[in-house]
Amino acid sequence: MLSANVEKITPSQVELVDTKLSQQVQTTVAEVGKALLGKDHQIRLALCCLFSGGHLLIEDLPGMGKTTLSYALAKALGLSYKRIQGTSDLLPADILGISIFNQTTSEFSFHPGPIFSQLVLADEINRTTPKTQSALLEAMEERQVTIEGETRMLPEPFFVIATQNPVTLAGTYPLPESQLDRFLMRLRLGYPDQRAERELLEMNTERDKVEAVNQCLSLEDVIAFRRQSAEVTTSDSLLDYVQRLVAFTRGKDEFHFGLSPRGSLAIMRSAKTWALMCGRNHVVPEDVQAILPSVVEHRLRATSDDEGHSGASLVQRLLNEVDIIE
User: Fold this and answer.
1) Cα 268 from Cα 292, distance rounded (Å)
2) Residue at 4 is within a domain
3) Which domain holds residue 33?
């Protein structure tokens, strides 16, 4: 049996699509990389999450570039952008909007909240109350909000980046598994390497690097990319591999719970998008392996882990022990 790292892919197995798409991705990664130095892989994963129609959770220490990534993505893709700072007194109306009585017209007029943007940064989401978290997560799932009995559609595309500080947890409301599962991916940016940090220190201000980002994709490009990613094909052997990965999480005592059907669908959706970003219209096992940590880490917890920080080691077991070919 072949291990997860040695499968040979022949040219006949991989049909390349229009290279314009992969070139657009490379250009976008380079453009966002002007602001978030040395993090090209994380930028590609964030783009994959957006193009897949999901939402992104970034869990990292303060000052690692979470806000920078969000704003730079919005600029590079030409998306409207709003930032919501999570606090304990933040109310659902502060996110969704509110109707205010206009004395001149003697009518109520609706004032939309920041949720009515194409890219929304929910900073420190775990500092908001469960009621406020639910309002945001409902909008993420339904792509619409109901306010005072009226349903209002959210813009297309609609992409939420939520952040959490994994260290300072006093006075916070950590997201439970059922809400974590709503995020297609979770990322950690990590510290910059020495070269990237040196370049960062040589800049005048942090704002300069974000302002240097130029738009390189149109709204039509983003929507077309989402549509085409759904058309990427998969083979029976690839589907067998994904099913073995999912079954492994459900059949081992070390896993507190296995991946849900939503989790398996998230793997396939992300792998298809990753393949398209690489210029292919067919998913190969390497696509699954590239996105697997970001897609399933936050969905897994070891039986012996009460804190829920064991996802990375469990994913490594999947990659090491589940064979590509039976």
Assistant:
1) 10
2) no
3) 11-321
Average pLDDT over residues 214-223: 92
Residue 275 lies in a domain: yes
Rounded Cα–Cα distance for residues 162 and 326 (Å): 38
Overall number of domains in the chain? 1
In whole angstroms, give the CA distance from residue 87 to residue 90.
5
d(CA 243, CA 264): 8
Sheet holding 185-187, edge to edge: 81-85, 119-123, 159-164, 56-59, 185-187
- Strands 107-112 and 97-102 come out as antiparallel
Query: Phi and psi (nearest 5°) for 8?
Result: -95, 130
Contact in structure between 120 and 84 (CB atoms under 8 Å): yes
With bands split at pLDDT 50, 70 and 90, how would you rate the model's confidence at 302?
Answer: confident
- Tokens standing for 131? 């009621």
| Whether the predicted pLDDT of 11 surpasses 50 | no
Determine if the pTM surpasses 0.85.
yes
Here the CATH number for the domain that contains residue 230 is: 3.40.50.300
Asked if the structure places residue 2 within a domain, the reply is no
- Give the pair of three-digit tokens for residue 41: 């892989």
Residue 5 lies in a domain: no
**Average pLDDT estimate for 231-254:** 94
93 φ, ψ (degrees, to nearest 5): -65, -30
Closest CA to 183 of 68, 96, 262, 261: 262
Angstrom distances, CA of residue 185 to CA of 41, 66, 298:
14, 14, 8
